[in-house]
Amino acid sequence: MNYMRRLKAQRLDHTIGEEMDLGGGFCVICGAGPPLVHDRMCEKCLRKRITVVKLSDTVQHFRCYRCGLVEVQGRWIEIPDDDLWEELIQRSLEVHKEAEQFSFSLAPQRIDDRNTRLHLQVDAIVHGLQFTENHSLLARMSNGVCLTCTRRAGNYFEATVQLRSAGRRLEEHELTEMRASLDEMLSGMNPDPMFFVTSEGTVQGGYDLVVGSKSMARTWGRHLINRWGGHLKETKSVVGRKDGIDLTRLTLLYRRPAFDVGDVIRFRQTLWRVGSWSSDGALIHKVERAERIGVSWRDLEKSVVISRQRDHTVVDLLRFDTSAGEFLNPRNWKMETIRLPYAHQGEMTLRLADIEGDWLALPQMAVDIPKEEEE
Ligand SMILES: [Zn+2]
Ligand SMILES: [Zn+2]
User: pLDDT grade, residue 223 (50/70/90)?
Assistant: First the structure.
């Protein structure tokens, strides 16, 4: 928000050239002769009587001592200092009704943690005369507690999100990336005072977050599924009654699949790669030949992860013919021959998976490309 610009814009609406009163006569104050500028006064007398800006001496604002948000017009927001100063000036400033081409410049001078003196130079035209005034205003900060921190301090919560995995332990890096996805999601949403985490921590088999809002929990749940597949189980419990309505708390259990997009899994005695998530499972691609099927979560529970995408090795092909290629085995730097994947189209690199001690060349998938660029 740029308050100064808004202020200027309002003032510019009034910029209609006002003509000096050049009529004859004498100044009603001091009796000087013409020209009289306005209201039958000479310039000198008029200037004495006009103040472009009235400003209070001090202005107070509240900053949450826990999280640093500032209260502006009844809302707790994050606001850069420069915008805050303009907001405070806007609050305390009264501009002469006849001022035209009003503008101001601002120089903050920090006095201590709580006090900042705002030096203001104001320019405007009033009754055809150019005015420049200097003012100052003391911005005084008081500690407050925002709504979010009040609720958080009272251990308020509406929902619990449980992060788990299907049939294994979640790995540290998985927890880190899932937790980071919450902050990422929140930073892209409109701030809501209820979107906070009351408490969180590692528990047996996973990670639990207790959060302030059911909708925040559900939105994040959808996010997790879109990114890492898996499913969400929702449980509601009634914790009380208020105004004839049940007060409920929500528990969302998210199970992340044992595999990720790009991994090699064994499913019905065959090797497949996970291509993408679908609404109730995943699309998987056969390693051996061009075949793609959709499989439900229920069926996928019977699959076994054979080689995770991040454990794959990409090697350079030294030469190849239509069915086989040669590469240097990075384990012993010996030349080896390998069967090319069905989709090989002359690429000079091969993605290999270690399948129980043997290298297997994998057909290239869309998911391989961005991952390699990241590394
Ligand atoms: Zn006069
Ligand atoms: Zn706060």
Answer: very high
